[in-house]
Design goal:
The complex is a heterodimer of chains A (about 475) and B (about 425). With about 475 residues, chain A is of the alpha/beta class. Helix content of chain A is about 35%, strand content about 30%. In chain A, the strands form 4 sheets. In chain A, strands 10, 11, 14, 15, 16, 17, 18, 19, 20 and 21 form a 10-stranded mixed β-sheet that branches. Chain A has a 9-stranded mixed β-sheet with strand order 2-1-3-4-9-8-7-5-6, covered by helices on one side. In chain A, strands 22-23-24 form a 3-stranded antiparallel β-sheet, with no helix packed on it. Chain B is globular. The chains are: A alpha/beta (about 475), B alpha/beta (about 425).
Chain lengths: ~475, ~425
């Protein structure tokens, strides 16, 4: 009897869980927004797919599928769809009928488009060498198999070769067409806005931004640095300081250590206490540079370049425009580049780059301000940034960061607090000291030896004095 | 660049300071042990060798009487002793005073230098006496010396008990130490020098330098060497090296004590020390080419020490001072940290420790007054040496290029000295 009740109870629970689970799945599916479908030769996402995924992710959630795995049921929960064809292939029947029946905003990219019913009336045109897309010129010509669209399509953007123009981006109802995803030159700054518009995505307004004072090393003039920091500070602009503690001069085959510039070192230590964030730049081993700075009470929480020791890394490069997560590491792209004081208008290229980035929704504006420049350009830069309220400067000190090496553990909390744990043994500290300052260590050994001898001499002097007193006392006693 | 120069200067300075530190410890150990064998050694002194005491004298009327009075009181069998005053072209009453003593004491006699040795300096005078004497042992005293009664006895004792020793050198003390601030400094300097340089080197390397006075040397050795080098300004250092090169050593036996007069004015001090510095520079340069052909390795080491002292050490000090001063007005990128300051303080403490230990060895010298003089000395007297050595080097270089003949400067004497040694 008891087992009978148990059976029904089990069935009941199973039904309940099944119901709950299917509800959960539906809820999750209902949240899905963009299906990014790709056709590549390897059936794996290539660089273009990844770049497109990144662009779309700025707006909303994105799932990526190979064209081979697409079917109608699978596409059902998605509101929007992008099909990226990067090589000519025959689209599987299941996939093409699923895509054909998609009702939401959809973008078809590349030459396989004509195999789908919305574009079946289109004709293939000649292969041409494209030199520009819309107003944006291409640095090197791109070969493209042109199309002749049906008249019912609205041409959004033309592309042009040397002497002729071709429809390149077209639109009709929910469907849009893009001739090719040419993600280079200035086009990489155009695609996010174009695709966002075609997919009718709400445009994010905010651009996270940061300013890094770079090139701080032993050769930095502390006076100049102080002026720059002061200028930014007076304007209440958060900055981070990128320090190269050990500078390697290959021409001289010599290492310059930060401690060789005592004033600079103490100034940086002061800034650390005041709550400025520090970025580590290593000319040599990252761990060695990290040890060096931390032992001098300067705590870097972000690294310039790749490093597994840091959760936060700053990277330079034209391709990266957004804050991104890669294997639990946050990548902060230095998108704007540096101010070159050799230029006639040093801030002009910087402003130009910011303008381009402002076209890319939610792109990061990462600016380098070299520490060897004086404070002259601070005002111009800050004024320009303040003209764009969508730029939101953030303070690295108020981000969560983590650094972990063999002997160092740093956790930075969002309130700016840093928890530091060092586990250097005395031998390790001595070894580090010897590596950094072999001569000084030898001199300290000398100090130790000489101190011992000086002590010995004073003891001997005392001993002689006591002996002499005894002798004088004896003599006095003997002589009466 | 500035850092490299600074490290070079530190190296040059500290290699010398460390060596002196090591010598000081040796000097202290020697003090604790040098008297122990005296009882044993005395047993060999029942039959003593004949001794000729040479006193070169050029215009020494102020001091010669006191010196001869001390000689007359020497503890040594008078039939085995001859004291020879070498009156070298004196224009004062030196000869007369000496003759008075010669008439009174049969073991004292006076000889006059003759051409070509006449008035040519100490070495020539000593060579004259060497030719005109017979003692198995030659003992030399400067004319301002008042040896203690047992001084010659102990010098000879050292030789009798050490067949490998060609010479024994005793200790000298400053008779006019309390006269001026300069003589106080010199007193401290001589005490320190003897226990550190003489005592320390003897303890560790069996090396000592003939100091020019209060030393005994075997006639046989002197004759093999052909006497004193008349060209040498520091004839004592020069003789030392030749003695070692013969395969002998020189024993430091501080039981033999003499008291001598030191310059009371800066002018006299400058002239005397310039002669010493130039003399030592001459010796280094003379033997520099023979560095590795000299028979005794210990003396090569000693020569190298002289080379370091008179050339490299002072170069290091000057370089260090120059960098310090330039850095006060112009940033030359000196990045050596607090360690430089620590080393500077330590160098001073080391100096203080070394001097205090040597002053404590001498019964009455370690007193409050001298303690303050030692501190003052570091910043004044010791620094004067830097200028002096540079000046001497310039003179010596000039002499080498011009072929100018060396003028032997006889140290000016001062009256009113006590009768300390002879008592």
């Amino acid at each position: 009897m008891r087992s009978k009740y148990s059976f029904w109870l089990a069935i009941g629970l199973l039904c309940f869980y099944t119901f709950v689970k299917s509800e959960t799945v539906h809820a999750a599916e209902a949240e899905k927004d963009i299906a990014l479908i790709f056709a590549t030769s390897t059936q794996q996402p290539n660089n273009d797919v990844r770049a497109l995924q990144e662009i779309l992710q700025v707006y909303t959630s994105v799932d990526v599928f190979s064209i081979e795995e697409v079917n109608q049921q699978m596409l059902q929960p998605y509101k929007r769809m992008v099909v990226l064809n990067t090589y000519p292939t025959n689209i599987p029947q299941n996939a093409s009928s699923a895509v054909d029946q998609f009702q939401g905003p959809a973008v078809m990219i590349g030459e396989n488009a004509l195999q789908f019913s919305p574009f079946s009336k289109w004709q293939v045109g000649p292969i041409v060498e494209l030199r520009a897309i819309g107003e944006e010129g291409l640095n090197s010509p791109v070969q493209w198999k042109s199309v002749k669209p049906s008249v019912d399509y609205e041409v959004v953007k033309m592309a042009s070769s040397l002497n002729q123009s071709y429809p390149f981006i077209m639109k009709k109802h929910n469907w849009s067409y893009i001739g090719d995803f040419i993600n280079s030159d200035t086009m990489q700054y155009q695609w996010p806005a174009i695709i966002g518009e075609l997919l009718q995505l709400p445009k994010p307004q905010i651009h996270p931004a940061f300013i890094v004072l770079t090139d701080i090393n032993m050769k930095t003039d502390v006076q100049t640095l102080q002026e720059v920091v002061m200028e930014f500070s007076e304007k209440r602009i958060p900055i981070a300081l990128e320090v190269t503690p050990i500078l390697l001069d290959e021409s001289e085959n010599k290492s310059y250590y930060l401690h060789d510039n005592k004033k600079l070192l103490s100034y940086l230590q002061k800034l650390q206490k005041e709550g400025y964030p520090f970025i580590l730049s290593s000319a040599i081993s990252t761990e060695k540079s990290l040890n060096y700075l931390v032992l001098r009470k300067i705590i870097p929480t972000i690294n310039r370049g790749d490093s597994s020791l840091f959760k936060g890394n700053i990277q330079q490069g034209d391709q990266q425009l957004y804050l991104s997560q890669l294997e639990h590491h946050t990548i902060y792209p230095m998108t704007v580049g540096t101010i070159v004081d050799r230029d006639i208008y040093p801030l002009y290229p910087v402003k130009q780059k910011i303008d381009l980035l402002l076209k890319v929704p939610r792109s990061v504006i990462g600016i380098q301000y070299p520490a060897y420049l004086n404070a002259t350009y601070v005002k111009g830069l800050v004024d320009y940034l303040s003209e764009h309220p969508q730029i939101e400067l953030f303070n690295f000190r108020q981000t969560k960061q983590q650094v972990k090496s063999e002997n160092i553990s740093i956790v930075q909390h969002e309130n700016g607090e840093q928890t530091i744990h060092l586990s250097f043994s005395k031998i390790e500290r001595l070894k580090i000291l010897f590596d950094e300052r072999p001569f000084e260590l030898i001199l300290w050994v000398l100090v130790l030896i000489v101190s011992m001898f000086v002590t010995l001499f004073f003891i001997s002097t005392l001993r002689l004095r006591i002996t002499l007193r005894k002798r004088l006392f004896e003599e006095r006693k003997t002589n009466g | 660049m500035a850092n490299t120069l600074f490290f070079i200067s530190l190296f040059l300075i500290w290699i010398m300071l460390l060596y002196h530190m090591f010598l000081m410890e040796g000097g202290y150990l020697h003090f604790r042990s040098f008297e122990k064998p005296i009882d044993d050694w005395s047993k060999k002194m029942d039959k003593v060798p004949s001794v000729s005491v040479f006193i070169p004298a050029h215009n020494e009327a102020i001091v010669i009487e006191q010196t001869l009075r001390a000689m007359s009181r020497l503890y040594y069998p008078k039939d085995q002793l001859e004291v020879i005053v070498i009156n070298d072209n004196s224009s004062d009453e030196t000869g007369e005073i000496a003759l008075k003593y010669a008439e009174k004491f049969s073991f004292i006699r006076v000889i006059e230098t003759v051409e070509p040795n006449k008035g040519k300096g100490k070495s020539s005078a000593l060579n004259s006496a060497l030719a005109d004497s017979t003692g198995d042992i030659v003992v030399v005293y400067d004319a301002d010396n008042t040896p203690e009664r047992m001084a010659v006895w102990y010098l000879v004792m050292g030789l009798m008990n050490d067949p490998k020793a060609a010479a024994t050198v005793g200790k000298f003390r400053v008779i006019n130490a309390a006269e001026t601030w300069l003589t106080r400094f010199i007193n401290i300097e001589t005490i320190c020098f003897q226990w550190m340089a003489q005592g320390g080197r003897w303890k560790w390397f069996k090396v000592a330098t003939i100091p020019g006075t209060n030393f005994a040397i075997r006639r046989s050795v002197l004759e093999r060497l052909g006497g004193w080098d008349v060209k040498a300004l520091a004839e004592d250092t020069e003789l030392t090296i030749r003695v070692y090169n013969l395969g002998y050593h020189i024993r430091f036996f501080p039981k033999a004590i003499t008291w001598e007069q030191e310059p009371e004015t800066l002018k006299v001090w400058w002239k005397q020390r310039t002669r010493w510095a130039r003399g030592n520079q001459y010796v280094v340069l003379k033997f520099l080419s023979q560095f590795f052909t000299l028979k005794r390795k210990s003396i090569i080491f000693d020569l190298f020490y002289f080379f370091f002292t008179y050339f490299l050490f002072f170069f290091g000090v000057i370089l260090s001072n120059a960098l310090f001063i330039i850095n006060l007005f112009y940033d030359i990128g000196l990045t050596v940290g607090d360690i430089a300051l620590v080393l500077w303080v330590l160098a001073f403490l080391l100096f203080l420790g070394e001097v205090m230990i040597t002053l404590s060895i001498e019964k009455t010298e370690m007193n409050r007054k001298n303690f303050f003089y030692v501190i003052l000395m570091y910043f004044t007297y010791s620094q004067m040496w830097i200028v002096l050595v540079v000046w001497s080097l310039l003179l010596e270089i000039k002499r080498m290029f011009t072929g100018q003949e060396v003028q032997w400067y006889k140290t000016e004497r001062f009256s009113k000295q006590s009768d300390k040694g002879a008592e």
